[in-house]
Amino acid sequence: MTNSELNRLKDKAFQGFGIFCTLIGLVVLAIFLLNILIDGLGRIDWNFLNNLPSRRAERAGIYTAWIGTLWVLVLSSLIAFPLGISAGIYLEEYGKKNRLASFLEVNISNLAGVPSIIYGLLGLEIFARMMALGGSLLAGSLTLALLVLPIIIVTTRESIKAVPRSIRDASYALGASKWQTTWYQVLPASFGGILTGVILALSRAVGEAAPLIVIGALAYVPFAPSSPMDEFTVLPIQIFNWISRPQAAFATNAAAAIIILLFITFMLNGIAVYLRNKWQKKVKW
Amino acid sequence: MSKKNYKLEAKSLNAYYGNFHALKDINIAMEEKAVTAFIGPSGCGKSTFLRTLNRMNDYIDGFRVEGEILLDNRDIYGKDVRVDELRKEVGMVFQKPNPFPKTIFENVVYGLRIQGIKDKRVLAETAETSLRQTALWDEVKDKLDKSALALSGGQQQRLCIARALAISPSVILMDEPTSALDPISTAKIEELIYELKKDYTIVIVTHNMQQAGRVSDQTAFFYMGELVEFSKTKIMFTSPKHERTQNYITGRFG
Amino acid sequence: MRVQEKIIEGLLWLSAVITILVTVGIIWVLLSESLTFFEEVSIVDFLTDTQWTPLFADKHFGILPLVAGTMLTTAIAIAVALPIGLTIAIYLNTYAPPAFRATIKPMLEILATIPTVVYGFFALTVVTPFLQSFIPNLAGFNSLSAGMVMGIMIIPMISSLSEDAISAVPKSLREGAYGMGATKFQTAFGVLVPAASSGILVSIILAISRAVGETMLVAIAAGQQPRLTANPLVPIETITTYIVQVSLGDVPHGSLEYRTIFAAGLTLFVFTFTLNNISFWIRKKYQEKYD
């Protein structure tokens, strides 16, 4: 075999390996999803969604868990969105390229890399203990709000950056102030991108269990929460709890709850992707 | 004080981008209700100078200005001057049409809205007047609530001019307003400039010698950040004083 | 008007500065509780003792077993994710038709969006039984299965960041190699990968940082037995799992056991903080080189 034949063979071999690697992750994903569906789909019915937790697997439901998840999503959104979007606006439109701005940038990129469980320790000490919120919805939502803040800030900045200079120029030239320009022109024009980031942040928050366990969210909550000060559980914690039990019937419950959790996660991500594509098509400068 | 009352004057104006000396000791006086054209090769400072006239360069990091620019004998870089007030007096039209991604109507009344004017009648009247001034009214009166981005390039540029007129400035700055347009749209804008100079002082930056010749009363030739020559357009184009001006006008460089 | 502008700017500034408070808060919480911890437990013991048994009668506070557990799962995850992720990056960049790349990239991203409890379930109920069928002495909880599944989870991190880095290699280099008759394979490994090495390195470091901090997956599938071992077949405990374990129990606040989770958290934070800053530093340096 000549050298060049050998080279071509190597090339072909690597190409085959490349296809193999690309597909292996997806094949594993498919096996996994199929497995979960087979295990859990039969378990999902109206009662499963509406039953309180129970020590008997076949009577246990995820009512408290999904209500808790919904509460946490709404509360942490209310906290994180205004903060994150404002911070993004400041860094992109106001923060001159000074030392504070570059420090903020390093800091935010660092925060994005802090493991979620560390946010749990922060929440435990500051919100649960010092602010005496205990293992309440509010403590949990504040913790998750801080966790997703970097995601919102980064996507807000990127969306704002994409608004062309000429739009700002036009607004300034008509006598608009910085804030007027930001409010009337920059934000509406970057709305789609910001919304996408916000939804991605939500999909991240919906799957988090570790930080909530650390602040003291419980696996067993007999009643659905009805105010921000109530104790709570969320879907991922409920799933974790069921996985930890030896009986096979609880594994079936876990699979069923996972289907619901994945449904929510995929739906949020789907909406985000849809919005991103829609906005990219619509806004042509 | 100058003998004559000029609308816009620059006195010993120097401008810098960081260490780069972009405008070197510019002295110029522009008459009221006349069209002044700035010409010169790319990077000569003509656009920079235009943008100092309404302080659009304020937002550029490291940009600074020395000397004075007088609008109606008042230094626009003075401490008591508010930039938003200045820009209501000095409107601007850009190189590429840049309508906001909003309706035609909202584009025209944007300047009024940010001044806090909410009276629907005032807004509607101003919109109509401004659109009539730019000869756009008949073309768009039935689709005021349609997106401005659906208009043609020439219409968009006239909309941008209408938008600038709506806040009743006395000076209009135009930064190569026809460079992105086809010849027919260009002709319409040039006619418009001719009409507008009855009421407004116009300063236009252009790359197009013929355009400068057609629309302007006076012309300033910039080169490497310096104002080389400034005179009546007719004189500049027939008997320029400097060889460099002559070369540029006749197309030998630039 | 002017006052209003200033107030708004002030509020926006405050929102941005809150992010600094979060960092300060994290460091303060970890340090203050850990300092109290180190008043009772010597830092030498913490760093050198080979046993971690704070919840037993015979208490030992050596962090090494937890660090070892964390390293082991991380190493297995990277051993899976690095070859696969890098191959995907090269394949998608130089071999794959654009339409294929456009479909496959978002599909791979799905892997990164799945909640980690779900991966834990997968590792425990599918992968471990599957591996047990040909490794009979594999324990029900083990770092092998948890690490492998974590590897799959972080594939998209390595593949997409590395692909970005490879795409950023100037076209002229690539064309130069093709022009000399190099195959795609030779171009990829002889030119592209070396030229994109710093970007690829950043992707690996970030993936390590992610794996070190991963919690639910290992808490579910890798066990809760702190053990100083490199054996991937037996139950171990990671730093993160320990924190979860204590949080689930009834450890009274203010006790020494309670403080152990902050000492463990501080250890974890030091690791991820260092890794993130190295990657940030490499990225800055790399940008300066190419811009």
Question: How would you sum up this structure in a few lines?
Answer:
With 254 residues, chain B is α/β, with parallel strands linked by helices.
Task: Walk me through the topology.
The complex is a heterotrimer of chains A (285), B (254) and C (291).
Chain A lengths: L2 H38 L5 H5 L12 H32 L4 H14 L3 H15 L6 H25 L3 H9 L4 H29 L3 H6 L19 H9 L4 H35 L3
Helix pairs in contact in A: 1-11, 3-6, 3-8, 3-10, 4-6, 5-6, 6-8, 7-8, 8-11, 10-11
Chain B lengths: L7 E10 L2 E11 L4 E5 L6 H7 L10 E9 L2 E2 L7 H7 E4 L10 H11 L5 H14 L3 H4 L12 H13 L5 E5 L7 H14 L4 E5 L3 H7 L2 E6 L2 E7 H6 L4 H7 L5
Parallel strand pairs in B: 3-8, 3-9, 6-7, 7-8
Antiparallel strand pairs in B: 1-2, 1-4, 4-5, 9-10
Helix pairs in contact in B: 3-4, 3-6, 4-6, 6-7
Chain C lengths: L1 H39 L2 H6 L15 H32 L2 H16 L2 H17 L10 H25 L3 H9 L4 H12 L1 H17 L2 H6 L17 H10 L7 H35 L1
Helix pairs in contact in C: 1-12, 3-6, 3-9, 4-6, 5-6, 6-9, 7-8, 9-12, 11-12
Molecular structure report:
Chain A: Belongs to the binding-protein-dependent transport system permease family. CysTW subfamily. Chain A: It is a multi-pass membrane protein. Chain A: Keywords: Cell membrane, Membrane, Transmembrane, Transmembrane helix, Transport. Chain A: This is Phosphate transport system permease protein PstA. Chain A: InterPro entries: MetI-like (IPR000515), MetI-like_sf (IPR035906), Phosphate_PstA (IPR005672). The complex is a heterotrimer of chains A (285), B (254) and C (291). By secondary structure, chain A is an all-alpha fold. Chain A has 2 domains: 3-43; 47-282, MetI-like (MetI-like fold, Orthogonal Bundle), CATH 1.10.3720. Chain A contains 11 helices and no strands. Chain A has helices spanning 3-40, 46-50, 63-94, 99-112, 116-130, 137-161, 165-173, 178-206, 210-215, 235-243, 248-282. Chain A is globular. The model of chain A has no long low-confidence stretch (mean pLDDT 90). Chain B is an alpha/beta fold. Chain B has a single domain, classed as P-loop containing nucleotide triphosphate hydrolases (Rossmann fold), CATH 3.40.50. Helices cover 35% and strands 25% of the residues of chain B. Chain B has 10 helices and 10 strands. Chain B has a 6-stranded mixed β-sheet, sandwiched between helices. In chain B, a hairpin with a 2-residue loop joins strand 4 and strand 5 (74-75). The radius of gyration of chain B is 18 Å and the shape is globular. Chain C has 291 residues and is an all-alpha fold. Chain C has 2 domains: 2-40; 64-289, MetI-like (MetI-like fold, Orthogonal Bundle). In chain C, helix 1 crosses helix 12, helix 4 crosses helix 6 (143-167) and helix 5 (116-132) packs across helix 6. The longest helix of chain C is centred in the N-terminal third of the chain and has 39 residues, at 2-40. Classes of the chains: A mainly alpha (285), B alpha/beta (254), C mainly alpha (291). Chains in contact: A-B, A-C. The interface between A and C is large, with 85 and 84 residues.
